[in-house]
Amino acid sequence: MNLLECKNLTKIYGKTCAIDNINLEIPKGRIIGVFGINGAGKSTFFKLINQLLIPTEGEILFKGEKLGIKSKERIAYLPERSYLNNSKRIKDVLKYFDDFYDNFNLKKAYKLLDELKLDSNMQLYKMSKGMLTKFNLILVISRDADLYILDEPLDGVDPSTRDYIIEKILSNVKNKSSMLISTHMISDIEKILDDVIFLDRGRIVLSSPREELVKKEKSSVDEIFRRMFRC
Amino acid sequence: MLKKLFKYDFKEINKSLLVLFIITIILSVVNVLTSNHGSNEVLLSLFIVTTDLALVFIFLILVFSLIVTFSKFRETMYKDEAYLTHTLPVKTTTIYDAKVLSSIVSILLSLFVAGVCFVFVFSHSFLIKFICDTLKDSKDTMETIYFCLYAIIDVVMFFLCLINGLIIGFKFDKRKDLMVFIIGFVTVFLIQFISLTTIHLFNESIWKIMELTICFIIDVILYFTGRYLIRKVNIQ
Predict the structure, then answer these.
(1) Rounded Cα–Cα distance for residues B177 and B169 (Å)
(2) Closest of A43, A56, A50, A58 to residue A17, by C-alpha
(3) Cβ proximity of A116 and A188 under 8 Å
(4) What is the least distance, in Å, from the CA of B200 to any CA of chain A?
(5) In this structure, which CATH number among 3.40.1280.10, 3.40.50.1580, 3.40.50.300, 3.40.50.2000 belongs to the domain A4-228?
(6) What is the pTM of this model?
(7) Which value does ipTM take for this structure?
(8) Phi-psi category of A158—alpha, beta or left, where left has phi over 0 and alpha has psi -120 to 50?
(9) For an interface test with A, which of B17, B18, B83 has the most A Cβ atoms less than 10 Å from its Cβ?
(10) A157-194, pLDDT tens digit by residue?
(11) Where are the domains of chain B?
């Protein structure tokens, strides 16, 4: 059974069609890169999966069932923007996650904090953008979820930490669960991807296993993207 | 989950109000301690300053309790923090219940603190005598209880009107904040108008009980209207 299925998924904001009749199946154990220029509908697509938006048409099934509390428990989502209360300390946020998510591994979160040299007593408003991104990522990958959705997880992160994040994504996801990842730093992550999806104006314009695509086009995903969306 | 959510929301709201509570209580206590100033000019000055400041802070508690509860609701249900709120493995209606209940309890706590401080500040003068006289007379006691209950139900109604305005306002794609403002205040005035016009239909002896009952029913209706409308949210 597929982990996630989108059937005729459409989302219209006023007169703008943000997601246009998307049909997609996501099996278990895949890392999928979702790429597109700004406004292509990537974040809207992720928000629909996380029940932050109601589809105008179509439906999303998670493990064959309609989205609900069960899917919220099993999907770990890292939004593009910071969604935490800035007045809180790191340890308060960890306690909050531990209280609400049964699959949150507090020990793992503290271990990752140590590895990324983040002080648990630090207040969020004192953290830089890069530090916040790292912390948000820790919150997501410390959950034992079936589907991880990362919207711009490398934004504002230095190159050495990027490598660390990619390594953590790999160790966390392979075989156990799937991951949807969206970023503009395609070259940084393309090697870990199993599948690639290109979105344009709310439509899937390309969907392919990465290896096949690279072999066929004889260029990297980053180059293909640049070619396809050249202004 | 409701209990956990309530605990976090209540803490978060009152963390913002705690400073106001502490300052007002300190001002009230200093005011009481300096009330027997005799001919000491320093104590007299302190007494006058603390009386004025305490009254200002009591007013601030009442205003800020509404502003803080409303803005926390808005921030956690519709702004950036909504990304976390609505991805918690909890029903949206449970989140709504916890937020509204914690807000109402916080508003009641603010009313209580403000009321106690008010009595403190005026404990040295006519107020204590007035309260004692009132309590001796059962009719006046009922009037006081009625006034307190009415104040509580009315403040809760005002908050629920704003929340409903917020929920309906955010269902619109454009000019959300303006819609929140318009709908919130139109609801307040409409409900005040309904309660003021319908209470005259009843016998004068049961007039007050009916007024309280109508206001309470309106509170309940507003609560469940918000609960119904919030089931499907669009965080745009």
Answers:
(1) 7
(2) A56
(3) no
(4) 45
(5) 3.40.50.300
(6) 0.85
(7) 0.87
(8) beta
(9) B83
(10) 788 778 888 887 777 776 678 889 998 888 888 888 88
(11) 1-124, 137-236
